[in-house]
């Protein structure tokens, strides 16, 4: 798989995952506001942060692959 293909895969996947994680954080906060049992909203919040951080990692990988693509495509390097 080329650096360009990896970039085109990881960047949008990362952005989508970040969005899902952000929505999940809001959902966990809503659970807390609605007086759900502590174990439920803490578990939901923990899962939300895992998804959000995974999205940031995927997006970061996309940025890395973009830089690698630019370095390989730039003449004279």
State the gist of this model.
The chain crosses the membrane at residues 7-29, 41-59. Keywords: Membrane, Transmembrane, Transmembrane helix. The protein has two helices and no strands.
Describe this structure in words.
The chain crosses the membrane at residues 7-29, 41-59. It comes from Hymenobacter glacialis. This is Lipoprotein. Keywords: Membrane, Transmembrane, Transmembrane helix. The chain is an all-alpha fold and 77 residues long. It has one domain. Helices cover 87% and strands 0% of the residues. It contains 2 helices and no strands. Helix 1 runs antiparallel to helix 2. The longest helix is centred in the last third of the chain and has 36 residues, at 38-73.
Task: Say how many strands there are.
Answer: 0
Q: Stretches where pLDDT falls below 50 for ≥5 residues?
A: none
General form: rod-shaped
Largest sheet: none
Helix content: over 70%
How many distinct folded domains? Answer: 1
Per DSSP, the total helix count is 2
Q: H/E order of the elements?
A: HH
User: What gap, in angstroms, lies between the N and C termini?
Assistant: 21 Å
What Rg do the Cα atoms give?
A: 17 Å
What's the average pLDDT? 95
Q: What is the strand content?
A: under 5%
Structure classification = mainly alpha
């Amino acid at each position: 798989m080329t650096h360009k293909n990896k970039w085109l895969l990881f960047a949008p996947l990362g952005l989508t995952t970040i969005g899902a994680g952000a929505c999940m954080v809001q959902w966990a906060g809503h659970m807390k506001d609605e007086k759900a049992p502590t174990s439920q909203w803490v578990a939901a919040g923990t899962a939300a942060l895992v998804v959000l951080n995974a999205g940031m990692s995927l997006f970061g990988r996309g940025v890395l692959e973009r830089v690698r693509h630019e370095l390989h495509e730039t003449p004279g390097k």
